[in-house]
Input
Amino acid sequence: MPAHASSEAGRGRRVLITGGAGFIGSHLADTHMAAGDDVTILDDLSTGRRENVPAGARLVVVDLRDGDAVRALVNEVRPEVVSHQAAQASVSISVREPVRDAEINVIGGLHLLHACRDVGTVDVFVFASTGGAIYGEVAEGRQARVGDERHPDSPYAVHKAAFEDLLRILGPDAVGRAVVLRYANVYGPRQRGDGEAGVVAIFRDALREGRPLRLFGRQAPGDGGCIRDYVHVSDVVRAHQVAVSNSAFPSVSNIATGIGTGTADLLHAMERHMGAARSIAQAPPRAGDLQRSVLAPGPAFAPVVELAAGLETVIRD
Ligand code: NAD
Output
């Protein structure tokens, strides 16, 4: 067990956020900056954006796959808190490019964890895992719980599960405490609408720009689409802050709402909020998409943002 530096009273913590130029990571960076922490962001800017980095935070452009560069940065920062958000985060890309997904999401994570072990300063290491993909299909009427067996069925989910396991096995020798947050479908300001994931941002952009929309069916075209658990990014931030500061926070938690929403219902809610309706092409199910994913929130987390209020923040973004 490394000798962990303890925070001096009255000063912020040294925080390293990987993926801090991305959607979720940048909101975490904002909150740590507001708390007076000393924030360094490791990001290769592959999907992240420089303008997401809050004023006063330091951005270092590093690819997690470059073990030497990761080690050099961790040695220099000597972080007390590490929040590991960087990832190849698209399920469909992971199906097309499983090797790249493994290199970033497994090997890149190991570079980071080994660097943490060597520097010996990390009190808490938070890992952004996936509740939306790790449990596989969730039967009608059920919510997946943390203790349920995992059924990862995409390279992305397999690699997230692998890093969860590596953290469980190697974490005790590397960091003071490791916390796995399994996010459901996160949405909110700064999510990009130009990728293959992030349906709320994709719908918003298409509705704004008057582009036609494609709605993938759950089992057949026009059946209302897949069921997802949409959790607002500010709830993720809240969970993360508690996980970092409360040493009794569970080692694995679902960051979710427990509420399932069909894709068509989501789209209609956004049309109502935006006062816009577009032509919708009903498409067959998309390969690799789970039909239903809904998670029991917690154990030590309860969301506060309702979908209607959360969608407003995306529409105003
Ligand atoms: P995002 O793409 O906005 O953020 C990922 C960040 O990681 C980006 O800034 C990107 O540039 C960076 N990155 C990617 N590859 C990198 C590499 N090789 N080296 C260094 N940086 C790299 O995605 P997000 O939605 O903010 O996701 C954040 C984390 O949450 C990811 O780990 C993702 O798997 C996880 N997650 C997200 C959701 C969701 O619904 N958004 C759900 C479950 C889990």
The two ends are 44 Å apart (CA to CA). Confidence is low (pLDDT under 50) at residues 1-9. The longest strand covers residues 124-130.
